[in-house]
Amino acid sequence: MKQSTGLFENITTVSEATRVGFISKLEEIKAEKGFKLEQEGHVSGYLYYISEGSARSYYTRENRDITVSFSLEGEFVTAMHSFITRSPSYETIETLEKSLLYRISHQNLQQCFVEFPEMERAYRIILEKYYIALEEQLIFSKFKSAKDRYLELMDKKPKIIQKASVGQIASFLDMTIETLSRIRARI
Amino acid sequence: MKQSTGLFENITTVSEATRVGFISKLEEIKAEKGFKLEQEGHVSGYLYYISEGSARSYYTRENRDITVSFSLEGEFVTAMHSFITRSPSYETIETLEKSLLYRISHQNLQQCFVEFPEMERAYRIILEKYYIALEEQLIFSKFKSAKDRYLELMDKKPKIIQKASVGQIASFLDMTIETLSRIRARI
DNA sequence: TTTAGACCTTGATAAAAGTCAAAATTTCAA
DNA sequence: TTGAAATTTTGACTTTTATCAAGGTCTAAA
């Protein structure tokens, strides 16, 4: 599980004992494209770390799926609302491509907090990052025109444009496929 | 500072020592309407607990202010992005009415984490609540029609409609004052 | 290689919301 | 209480984006 060493890199310094204890609770997942990490209606079971690949979170409304977020390599992902509240998730998360993931179950994470109080801090920092990403997304969603939202995405997360389909991007940007297509034609 | 005892109620159980230690670091603020808790361009200094009253967070774009969130009695509020990253805040937070607040400085909170590791957990839970509120707001912002967003606000946070001005509510709901006025006329 | 289905683009039209302007109403201090 | 300023509403018109429909294009299985 050597690849998972990068997992703590951007978070915080923890003792060797905590690191080893935490890593021993991780599970490696090799997922094909379209593998579902979390499912709508189920309580989120795991916190995932994307070592390689990418994922998309979405929910369904009126028979179409609406993308909530994209997650790239080096990021943590889960249905956070469900993971926190232990209530059924409204979102489904699936890989956008063949991916290598590490995950820890909610229960094991709680166990970690008890065994290694340092982990509280590490997790707090994950939460903070998650929070900030969400806040940026909210500000982003306030960009009034469809064109501005697209340009902002191009600027901030260009990888998503390569990895996701037009429909996935359009719903993420809160516009129709047609509008996105026209914006692209005009640039 | 007896009113502040309600402060931990919905969070977690902490030991008496931690509670006393934490409370000793709190500062009571009696604020008139329009008192600024945090200012755009400054690094957020405090985490506030609203004991009585309410607050509004907003940023300025093209000479008009855009409301990001409303906070009510019993909630924590700060310019979280700035509070976490220690970079200048893009938002200003002010009271909507005469309010009673308790606040802890960022530095004292960090000190608390060192003195009372239990506080990591309590703060983590505040962060989780903050996160969930933000996520709900994001979903809410995806409600397509202006009318739906207004009805949702009426349903979920009717108090805001009494406390805030039309302009504040309209910018929060991502519509013009005129559109909000017309929606209200039609209901 | 062919071809069905999915995916994407383009066009015409409609609906939603924005802008600008003016009138009505409310608020608050003199 | 009154009048000026601020806030809210209403109206006419414009812009943006959605919807519906029809063509293209790409892709993968036969």
Distance between the termini of chain A: 45 Å
Please tally the β strands of chain A and state the result: 8
The main pleated sheet of chain A reads as: 4 strands, antiparallel
Find the biggest chain interface: A-B, 27 and 27 residues
| Uncertain stretches of chain A | 1-5
The CATH architecture name of the largest domain in chain A reads Sandwich
Q: Tell me the Rg of chain A in angstroms.
A: 17 Å
Index terms:
DNA-binding; 8 strands; Jelly Rolls; disordered N terminus; 24% strand; alpha+beta; four-stranded antiparallel sheet; 187 residues; homodimer
How would you summarize the topology of this molecule?
Two copies of one chain form a homodimer.
Chain A: H1 16-24, E1 27-31, E2 36-38, E3 46-52, E4 54-61, E5 64-72, E6 76-77, H2 80-85, E7 92-95, E8 99-105, H3 106-115, H4 118-141, H5 146-156, H6 158-163, H7 166-172, H8 177-186
Antiparallel strand pairs in A: 1-8, 2-7, 3-6, 3-8, 4-5, 4-7
Helix pairs in contact in A: 7-8
Chain B binds a DNA duplex (30 and 30 nucleotides) through residues 144-146, 165-167, 175-182, 184-185.
GO molecular function, one term (chains A, B): kinase activity
Organism (chains A, B): Algoriphagus ornithinivorans
InterPro entries (chains A, B): cNMP-bd_dom (IPR000595), cNMP-bd_dom_sf (IPR018490), RmlC-like_jellyroll (IPR014710)
